[in-house]
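User: Look at the shape:
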Amino acid sequence: MNLKKKNSQMLILCGGRGKRMGNITNSIPKPLIRIGNRSIIEHKIRYYKTQGFDNFIFCLGYKSKKMQSFLRRKTSKSIYSDAGVNAGILKRIFFAKKFIKNTTIISYGDTLAKINLKKLVKNHLGSKCLITIVVAPIKNPFGLVNWDKKNKAISFEEKPFLNHYIGYAVISPHIFRYINKRTINLKDGNGIVEAIKKLILKRQVNIYKFNKLQVTINSPEELNHARLNYKKYFTF
């Protein structure tokens, strides 16, 4: 199977306000924040191209004109979809539905992970599921306690490793048949969370485990970390 031909698109979510970044995103959308000598979105695009993926769907919203103007100078095979400033994550994906013709990789505009994308797509196709989500281990810094109805402790785990969704997924194009309008229109990330929960009940969510380099930039502290350590991530 020619995966590049079969799956030639990546959908990148670039429409959020980036409120947790404080004043940094008052003038520019978060994907245009620079790390080293390039913006976050440039680092992402360059990495995806090294993997053989160069057709992009950019889901825009906040400061979309500035974002699109920048992207037009960096890519040639791109589609721009703007669901508006207030659209939630799932609404942005659904709004681009008409452009999603094949199995498509989704990534958040503030996250980069050194994933083998062709291997990820192959894993998804083999699962026969509607969606594959990429998860990574994270060490909880606290001791976690569970108890019963009588307030008697039934477990205690000191700094356990948990699994978290890192903002990468693969979807099959007919996934939207199984998601209702109410869920699609939920705010922020509530829609994508509810959709995944419902698909879990249908046993349609495949897990792709990933434990290599990744960086997500949600706050000024994470931005500082990325700027101090970016050469570990952006070496291409």
User: Anything to note?
Assistant: Helices lie at 3-6, 40-50, 64-72, 89-95, 117-127, 181-184, 190-201, 220-233. The first strand starts at residue 9 and ends at 13. The mean pLDDT is 92. The longest helix spans residues 220-233.
